[in-house]
């Protein structure tokens, strides 16, 4: 019994930091959508959601995408947004000025994919 409690406590301790580090959507200013053309410099295709980095306005920006399953279900593939490919992104910037964008829409060529 004591061993089971120890394992449960250890599991919770390791699971809590990622959950606490996750950002809430209220951190982004949804009253001011931004559309830009850019290329990702890095791409992470994983859960809880995809993410990327890009250079914009002289800074390296963190880019928050949708969960991979949703992007794929809506027709967006990793190959289409690999680093170096030109994309048009529409999304919202962080309210606190942090160089981070939550993407709502990705346009690749003539294809538009809604992420939310």
Question: Can you tell me about this structure?
Answer:
- The radius of gyration is 17 Å and the shape is globular.
- A five-stranded mixed β-barrel has the order 1-2-3-5-4.
- It is an alpha+beta fold and 116 residues long.
- A hairpin with a 2-residue loop joins strand 5 and strand 6.
- The N terminus is likely disordered.
- It contains two helices and six strands, in the order H-E-E-E-H-E-E-E.
- It starts with a helix and ends with a strand.
List keywords for this structure.
116 residues, alpha+beta, globular
At a glance:
The protein has 116 residues and is an alpha+beta fold. The chain is built from 2 helices and 6 strands; from the N terminus they run αβββαβββ. A 5-stranded mixed beta barrel has the order 1-2-3-5-4.
Task: Break the fold down into its secondary structure elements and pairings.
Elements (H helix, E strand, L loop, with lengths): L1 H20 L12 E11 L6 E6 L2 E6 L3 H6 L12 E8 L6 E9 L2 E4 L2
Parallel strand pairs: 3-5
Antiparallel strand pairs: 1-2, 1-4, 2-3, 4-5, 5-6
């Amino acid at each position: 019994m004591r061993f089971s409690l120890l394992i449960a406590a250890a599991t919770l301790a390791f699971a809590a930091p990622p959950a606490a580090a996750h950002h809430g959507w209220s951190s982004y200013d949804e009253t001011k959508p931004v559309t830009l053309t850019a290329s990702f410099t890095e791409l992470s295709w994983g859960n809880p959601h995809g993410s990327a980095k890009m250079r914009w306005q002289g800074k390296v920006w963190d880019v928050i995408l949708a969960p991979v399953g949703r992007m794929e279900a809506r027709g967006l593939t990793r190959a289409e947004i690999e680093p170096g490919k030109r994309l048009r992104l529409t999304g919202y910037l962080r309210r606190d000025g942090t160089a981070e964008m939550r993407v709502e829409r990705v346009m690749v060529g003539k294809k538009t994919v809604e992420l939310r």
